[in-house]
Amino acid sequence: MSLDDSVQDLADRLGTPLVVLDLELKVVAYSIHDTAVRRARLGRLLAGSAAPVTDSVVRVHGLRTATHPVRVPADANREALVVTPLRHDKRPLGYLYFVDDRPSPDRSAAEEASALESACPEIAMLLSLKLSEARHSGEHSRFVLAALLGDSVVERRHAAATLLQEGLIEDVDQYSVLVFRAPDLAPRSVTRLAVEETLEFTSRSTTVKIVGAVLGTDGIVLFPRPVNKTRLGQILASADLEQVTAGVGGVKRSLNEAVDSFHEAQIACRASTLDARRYGRVAFWDGLGLDRLLLQLPLDRLTPNDLPPGVQRLLAAPNGRELASTLETYLDNGGEVQRTAQHLNVHRSTLYYRLDRIREVTGCELSDGVTRLDLHAGLRVARLSALWLRG
């Protein structure tokens, strides 16, 4: 019997919707019902934003160490629940829960306890098997994805063939790689969560097969199509992922070229990390422009002395960052005063004053095309290399 079948049998015996969670409180299985009332209740139990079993409930009611069903009283946010810890070989695996709506005409407390006592050991054993299968499947996907994006041409070809033969991804002519990255001090679990949320969101909203894993510090997802910017934004909107940035590589015609999209996605992710002002939290390789080249320079080895002299003088001056930002915006807008003033939210007279001050500090004539190119590129390198902050 499968986990789903076992849960369904118990739900039919108890006459109420059941949900099974793993230790991370993610839904692993739930019962199916044919009445409107029970479907509505199940919908409430499964609602992601109002999930009744939370980390707080687990902690307050001692669910991790409990050995018998625990009755959780109702509060302003949820109905009363019965939560049964699931263990196999004395190892905690998750929880089975349902709404505690007794007194009920179709079951007594004794019948409920008897049903849980007889069914939960089998459910726990089946949950253990399912989690083990998922773990091995995830490890296999991680191994194959690592080979696909590795340095060996032979291993990349073998990994591509494996992905297609095992049906882990579609055989198409357009593949792109998405890279997630969390701040250095953030737990690695944040990056893993970004990958898992992407896998779950895609499985819920489309029939597309994708592969994802965490390799090193990068969360990586391989798509058999271009990455949808709107859907990616919806995933990153989660409060748990507010520190995560993302980069998307270009579309490639074969799986053997996915490694190129991966490297592009890493560069794009770096762009979103270094310049949220321009890119926000997501950068696409196709939208990087000159940053494609600049971000492949040894930026971490640059010093202020490597910048054009005018940029050096500007960043070293009093109020240098404000003047540098003004000049950058002015050059970004092609030297158009009105549009620059609007972007900076200043009066035109204020902008003219700052431009005069910039000419004085840099010793440069802003009307000269070559000079403007030097200043614009120098400012861009300063921002991407963090020299801006050290100026």
TrEMBL record:
Gene3D superfamilies associated with the record: PucR C-terminal helix-turn-helix domain
Residues covered by the CdaR GGDEF-like domain: 174-271
Domain PucR C-terminal helix-turn-helix: 323-381
Pfam families found in the cross-reference section: GGDEF_2 (PF17853), HTH_30 (PF13556)
Protein family per UniProt: Belongs to the CdaR family.
UniProt cross-references to PANTHER family, sorted A to Z: CARBOHYDRATE DIACID REGULATOR, CONSERVED PROTEIN
Protein name (record): Helix-turn-helix domain-containing protein
Species this protein is from: Rhodococcus artemisiae
Lineage: Bacteria, Bacillati, Actinomycetota, Actinomycetes, Mycobacteriales
